[in-house]
Please model this.
Amino acid sequence: FEGRAQLLGTNFDWDEGELRPTPIEDPKFLDERRKAFGLPPMAETLFKIVHSPPPKDPAKKALEFEKWLRSVGWRV
Model:
């Protein structure tokens, strides 16, 4: 959430009604990194979340998330 690409593919956000991972650093080696931390392959994770319902009010969710990011110092 610091604005950099993530390493493990554990952060997701809504994009046009679908829950997708936020940008991932060096995606070619993502599953290797996930395995080293005891996480399942990304394909398995994506399969589990594909039916997650979107937020009722996406704009409100985005504003609340931005407020939280600022409160913890990850955004200025």
